[in-house]
Design goal:
Elements (H helix, E strand, L loop, with lengths): L14 E5 L4 E6 L2 E6 L9 H10 L7 H19 L4 H8 L3 H13 L3 E3 L14 E3 L5 E7 L3 E8 L4 E8 L5 H19 L6 E8 L14 H4 L1 H4 L2 H6 L6 E5 H12 L8 E6 L3 E7 L2 E2 L30 H10 L4 H4 L11 H23 L6 E6 L3 H17 L9 E4 L6 H7 L1 H6 L20
Parallel strand pairs: 6-9, 9-10, 11-14, 14-15
Antiparallel strand pairs: 1-2, 2-3, 4-5, 6-7, 7-8, 11-12, 12-13
Length: 455
């Protein structure tokens, strides 16, 4: 069934289901009728309650075209996961017939989504030909609007960054955002060796409430309130010709790790991203789970006990906390930690105390998330150098050793792989995950989550 982790798909399914009084269902597949027990009975729902029930459970069947599309996405998903895949391997993993896999491979190769690798010789029978993703199949632009920086990237189909432009600021405004895009876009395309016609889409990652917590990062409330009524998509459509989507920056960073990070067998993990304010994302069944409003992984309000300076995770495991520590000692945090340098040695006297504080708070937050969902792993990343990330992960491990974890199973604690660029890369990956991968959380729902920003 399509929701199993290693899914088996019918080559094609035409079905009619008739309910019976005993809870069994008569199913016609390709004209042949049998019966099965689906484990539930039908309930008769009338009028408004029926409409409400349909909206709450928007499941739908699939026609032949949709099933073919799902199978193609499944193959692309598996090739991305494994790096390369032969027809025999794809047949074994998916349960599709050898003929169906051959047809799909040929179609994806004809669409220039897959490339042939070198034949594998030395085995019995004909040489196997592994297929791999075509890096040049699609190009995407990702824009990250952050409280301290803008980030603009062009990414290919396998996540390679072809060009990047960044700009730091004290706080973002709608006008400054548009100015940054207009000033940098042409040069970005030139640096990547691409033209406007090569770009498939542009996606934006940003905090959903930029007007919140303004006092904590020194931004004038009056200027940040401009984001409340600003229609970002409409404004960008006057600047760029491509399809546009906007999503939460924490979910975008999480998607970068899932789609473009090293292959991993973990299907369920919680992802923390330490930016100006801490956020992150949730991965369930191998897909980013954005939630109803697109704000899953908004971990800032999680409560942290016995920590001076506040009772929320955001009060401790955020870069604005480190900024204040540096500024209180006469430093310049905008230059020393936000100007794009991977060398934080100049401020290490304050980095280590902040790591200790953030590590304690994250350990408490991790236990809180495990009390809700039994995650296999925790991934920690942020807008800091790899050395700081490694130290923070180690501190979290140390703090978990000190805490009572009775009732939950300790997950693996892993570092992320992208650092400050994660949100922009994740924005660029939006169409990769929604159009060329299997999302087991939304596969049978009428309206898969494409939540866009509401300002």
């Amino acid at each position: 069934m399509v929701w199993l982790r290693e899914a088996a798909f019918f080559d094609c399914v035409y079905g009619d289901i008739e309910g019976q009084s005993d809870g069994r269902y008569s199913v016609a597949l390709n004209g042949r009728r049998g019966s099965m027990n689906l484990g539930f009975s039908m309930k008769k729902i009338d009028g408004e309650k029926q409409e409400e029930h349909v909206r709450a459970h928007p499941l739908k069947g699939s026609n032949l075209t949709t099933v073919r599309g799902v199978n193609e996405r499944l193959i692309l998903h598996l090739v991305r996961l494994h790096g390369k895949l032969t027809k025999a391997e794809a047949t074994r993993i998916t349960g599709l017939s050898p003929n169906a896999v051959s047809v799909i491979f040929r179609a994806l190769e004809a669409d220039e989504l897959l490339l042939r690798g070198k034949p594998i010789r030395g085995r019995i029978g004909q040489p196997s030909v592994p297929m791999m993703l075509n890096p040049d199949a699609r190009y995407y632009i990702g824009l990250k609007i952050g409280r301290r920086t803008f980030d603009l990237v062009i990414v290919n189909f396998v996540g390679e960054v072809l060009a990047r432009r960044t700009e730091s600021h004290a706080y973002p405004t709608p006008a400054a955002t548009l100015c940054f895009v207009k000033n940098e876009l042409a040069d970005l395309l030139l640096s990547a060796g691409t033209s406007q016609s090569d770009i498939a889409a542009m996606n934006v990652a940003m905090p959903f409430e930029l007007w919140s917590w303004t006092a904590d990062f020194g931004a004038p409330q009056s200027e940040m309130d401009a984001w409340r009524e600003f229609d970002l998509v409409a404004a960008l459509k006057d600047v760029v010709p491509w399809p546009l989507t906007v999503e939460n920056d924490g979910n975008a960073a999480c998607r970068a790790e899932l789609v473009f990070g090293p292959p991993d067998t973990v299907q369920d993990f919680v992802y923390f991203f330490v930016g100006s304010f801490i956020g992150g994302g949730v991965v369930l069944n191998g897909s980013v789970f954005p939630g109803r409003s697109g704000n899953s992984g908004g971990f800032g309000p999680l409560r942290v006990p016995d920590e001076p300076g506040g009772d929320r995770l955001v009060d401790h495991a955020s870069l604005v906390v480190l900024e204040r520590m540096i500024a209180e000692h006469g430093g310049d945090p905008l230059r020393q930690i936000h100007a794009g340098s991977n060398d934080w040695d100049e401020v290490d006297a304050w980095v280590q105390p902040w790591i200790n504080r953030a590590g304690r708070s994250l350990a408490h937050a991790i236990i809180s998330t495990l009390a809700v969902i039994d995650f296999q792993a925790v991934v920690i990343d942020g807008a800091f150098p790899p050395s700081v990330r490694s130290r923070l992960v180690s501190e979290v491990e140390h703090q978990l050793d000190q805490l009572d974890m009775q009732g939950v199973i300790r997950p693996d604690i892993k570092p992320g792989h992208f650092g400050s660029i994660a949100r922009a890369i994740g924005a660029a990956a939006y169409q990769v995950s929604t159009e060329f991968m299997i999302d087991q959380n939304t596969l049978l729902r009428q309206n898969p989550s494409t939540t866009s920003l509401q300002l």
